[in-house]
Structures are given as C-alpha cells and as structure tokens.
C-alpha cells in the first residue's frame, strides 16, 4: 500500500493541475455598463449562479429621455425608474454585485505557465479586478451640434428614434434636423405619424449632397412631394422652447411641446417636435484599448456568434455593437443572448478541465501503481533470495 504522504502529494498535484486549467479570478464575468444591456446580462448570468459584477459609470444614452416607450410591460416608464427596479430584482441573485464606478482599463492577461488567460480591470480609483470573461455594454454618445437650445431639449420633444418617442407627438407639426442625405429615410420612418413635415437641412442642401441622396433614393424629390415634405435650407441660429410637453399632455399620453427655430437671417418657424439625424460615437475608450474590430465605429459582432467580438473572451451588447438596432428591447435581447453564450462557453471550458483532470488522474495513478508494484516485487524477490541463502 502506498504511503499516506505519497497519496497526499498525488492528489495535491491533481488539484493544482485543475486550478491551472481554469484561472482563479475574482469573478467569472465583468460587465461594463449599467444600462438595459448590462442589466440584462447581469440578470442572465445571475440566474446561472455565475460570479458576476456590473460596473456602472452612471452615464446612459437615454438618460435625458422623459420616459421609455415600445418596451412591453414598461411603456411610459422613466429610464431611471426602470434601472432601479431592475437592480432591485437582480439583487436576489447572490452571485451578482453592482459597483457604481467607471472602469478605466481592461487588459487581457496570458498565463503561459498555466496555459490559460483572463482579464484585469482597473476602476477610476485604481482598484483591480480579475475575471474570465468581459461583456461591454458601454453604449454610444450622440454627437449633438452646438446649437443653443438643442442639447437642453434633447430627449424632451427633440429625439432620434420614432419608435421610442414619435407616437407621443402624433399628428403634430414635425421638423427633421440633420443633413439632406438623411431626409428621405426620416420621412419613410415617420409619415404614418405626421402630415405636416419640414426638413431643416441647415445649409446642407448642396449639389454634392443631392448626388449622395440620389444614390440612395433615385426618385427622392418625388417621394418628398408625395408626402408634401418641405425643405428649409436656412442656417439655424438657435432653437427656443416655447412650451414644455412635460406640463402639457392629454389623457392619451400625447405631449404638446412647442419650439421656435431661429434662423441667422432673423426669421423664425415653430414646430411641435423634431426627429434628428446626428452621428454617434463610442462612449468608452475600452473597445479601442482592446483593439476590437470595428464597423462604422461600432464594435463588430456580425461575424461572431452570441455577441462575441474579435477578441477571445470579450462580448459587446447594446448600442455599442454593430448588429444594427439601438433601442431598449434590442439592448435587453443582446444582453440576454450574451449571458447565455458566456455561461455555455465557460461551462465548456469547465467540462474540458474536468475531462483533463480525470485523464491526468488516471494516467498518474497508472504510472504510480507501476512504480509501486515494481518496488514491492523487488523487495519481495530480495526477501526470497535472502531466505534461500539461509
């Protein structure tokens, strides 16, 4: 029989081998971003008892919005209220936690000795955290022009998503803000809600932009005529709020804002609401620091399964990724999808590690048995020889 110390050493070695195959980290998953996408990921992983932490910098694209719409079960819910309730419900999953601080950097770590890898995140206070996987729900920022009054009204009568805000201003006078090439797209999205539409192109109605628009919509002029859309190319000096829809609503939920557009020539035009066509940018520098492949300034997830990015172990959810939709239901869907795939990916790794452990255990015991049996036979043979000599 093998000595006790030998068995202890053997199984200690096996334990070390298993630990080396699965990195020992603070968390299974780090989620960066506390909006609907990050919350959905946190919920999904929490329900599978994955050790998951969500970092929330307190920056949200829809923070200025009066209320969310087209979110089944939460239609009309203010974004802050939605997030608070989500946090409360997720808190019952004991494996999850939320830290209200910004993550400044994330670094992939290759442990060549253990043949594994993990991630190290550092927050704004310099505290470090490690995890096996990372999910980015870091979102976008809208690049709003520096027009006086525009930013102040953002999300409150001036918006970019007709599904999110258009219905509450139905049958009112609509203005389209942005460049000429985007006018027809906005009309096609909104013509069932509005019949009084003016596109304020702010000096972008140029021959070059006509060519650009014609490449997308060859009959663009006839389309605008069909919907009686007018184009006003005067330069905008400011947008003044005359009436706040927060204080003027009806029983059906309609919001009655009034805005006065001031042009540089001194003239004005009034509108009730505006749809905008302004560019966006990544809110966080993390995608760039992680060298993720980008598509039109979005994190590329099109060629990868389950919201995976080009970097192993890194996922992207919500507005920051490239799957072509930016709204709360999409964010929740992408977070859920990533949560499922992250969990299964880790489970596969754990399964492979368990198989490797069994194989290692079997091979090690076989070799140890051969050595022990060989030693015992040699001792026995020596005893037989000694007895024969006697």
UniProtKB/TrEMBL annotation:
Keywords: Flavoprotein, Oxidoreductase, Signal. It comes from the Eukaryota. Residues 27-179 form the FAD/NAD(P)-binding domain. Residues 1-19 form the signal peptide. GO terms for biological process: cellular response to toxic substance. Pfam families: Pyr_redox_2. Transmembrane segments: none annotated. The keyword Signal applies. One of its GO terms (molecular function) is oxidoreductase activity. PANTHER family: THIOREDOXIN REDUCTASE 1-RELATED-RELATED. Belongs to the class-II pyridine nucleotide-disulfide oxidoreductase family. This is FAD/NAD(P)-binding domain-containing protein. It comes from Aspergillus ibericus CBS 121593. The lineage of its organism: Eukaryota, Fungi, Dikarya, Ascomycota, Pezizomycotina.
């Amino acid at each position: 029989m093998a000595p006790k110390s030998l068995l202890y050493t053997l199984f200690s070695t096996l334990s070390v081998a298993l630990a080396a195959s699965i990195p020992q980290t603070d968390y299974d998953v780090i989620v960066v971003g506390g909006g609907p996408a990050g919350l959905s990921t946190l919920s999904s992983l929490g329900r599978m008892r994955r050790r998951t932490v969500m970092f929330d910098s307190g920056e949200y694209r829809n923070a200025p919005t009066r209320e969310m719409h087209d979110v089944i079960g939460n239609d009309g819910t203010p974004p802050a209220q939605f997030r608070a309730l989500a946090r409360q419900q997720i808190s019952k999953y004991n494996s999850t936690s939320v830290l209200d601080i910004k993550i400044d950097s994330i670094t992939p770590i290759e442990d060549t000795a253990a043949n594994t890898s993990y991630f190290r995140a550092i927050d704004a206070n310099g505290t470090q955290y490690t995890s096996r996987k990372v999910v980015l729900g870091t979102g976008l920022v809208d690049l709003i022009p520096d027009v006086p009054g525009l930013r102040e009204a953002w999300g409150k009568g001036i918006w970019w998503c007709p599904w999110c805000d258009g219905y509450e201003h139905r049958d009112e006078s609509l203005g389209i803000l942005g460049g000429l090439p985007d006018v027809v797209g906005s009309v096609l999205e909104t013509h069932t809600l509005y019949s009084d539409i003016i596109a304020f192109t702010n000096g972008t109605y140029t021959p070059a932009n006509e060519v650009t628009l014609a490449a997308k919509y060859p009959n663009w002029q006839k389309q605008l005529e069909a919907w009686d859309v007018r184009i006003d190319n005067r330069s905008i000096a400011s947008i003044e709020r005359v009436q706040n829809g927060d204080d003027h609503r009806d029983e059906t939920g309609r919001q009655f804002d009034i805005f006065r557009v001031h042009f540089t020539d001194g003239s004005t035009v009034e509108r009730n609401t505006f749809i905008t066509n302004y560019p966006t940018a990544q809110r966080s520098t993390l995608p760039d620091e992680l060298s993720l492949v980008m598509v039109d300034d979005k994190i590329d997830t099109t060629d990868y399964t389950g919201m995976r990015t080009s970097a192993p172990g890194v996922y992207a959810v919500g507005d920051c990724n490239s799957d072509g939709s930016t709204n709360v239901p999409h964010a929740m869907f992408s977070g859920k999808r990533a949560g499922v795939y992250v969990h299964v990916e880790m489970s596969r790794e754990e399964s492979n590690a368990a198989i490797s452990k069994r194989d290692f255990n079997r091979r090690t015991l076989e070799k140890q048995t051969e050595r022990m049996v060989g030693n015992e036979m040699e001792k026995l043979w020596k005893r037989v020889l000694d007895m024969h000599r006697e």
